[in-house]
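Team,

Forwarding the record for the chain on the shared tracking sheet. I've put the sequence and predicted structure together so nobody has to dig through attachments.
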Amino acid sequence: MRGNNSLIRGMGSETVYSSGPVIDHGDVLILSVKPQVVPMILPDLKNYNKLLLSIAMGVPISVLEKALPGGTPVIRVMPNTPALVGCGATVYARGKHAGDKEAEIAEKLFSSVGVCEEVTENLIDPVTALAGSGPAYVYMMIEALADGGVKMGLMRPIAYKLAAQTVLGAGTMVRDTNTHPGQLKDDVASPAGSTITAIHYLEQHGLRSAVIGAVEAATKRCREVSSLSDKN
């Protein structure tokens, strides 16, 4: 812990234990707390009138704008955890007082840790369900692929390494070739081969239906949280 504090001080940063010093510092405030904590933070922002970037899941822009001085620019942002390794997928939505200048700041910040796209606020919940929660689904897939390899005789370290690299490679192929994933799937599936046999097994057991249902269920939960935030 002592070493971490030295690193933080070396970057010109410091640890504080109240919102005041954070709010007063800099030109942009990033609100990155759990949604249930937001009502406890909002009173501290009643005099805040600089750009607010909110990462709080399920908290609508209207709730934030209502708590802030009139005209305060608010942008709602939804990144995901792969931003930690520079592979994030982030979207943002502007509030009514956020212009091109503020949008450019948000895009520049989050493009530095992956891809960043602007959407309308009504799309934030499905994006959260797909990209925000999506890494968890993919981690489960990696774990399952590795378990399958172990079942068939692979040592676990190499099974995890190959499974992770396979997912990384497949995602990169979709992103960089601009080819439909269905076409890329067909390219791997030779007639009467092992891949098409495996694909048939996955279809029989509802892989695609389960993933679609997971995104739908997560979206509905995000909307429930948003509805609670509106009422509070």
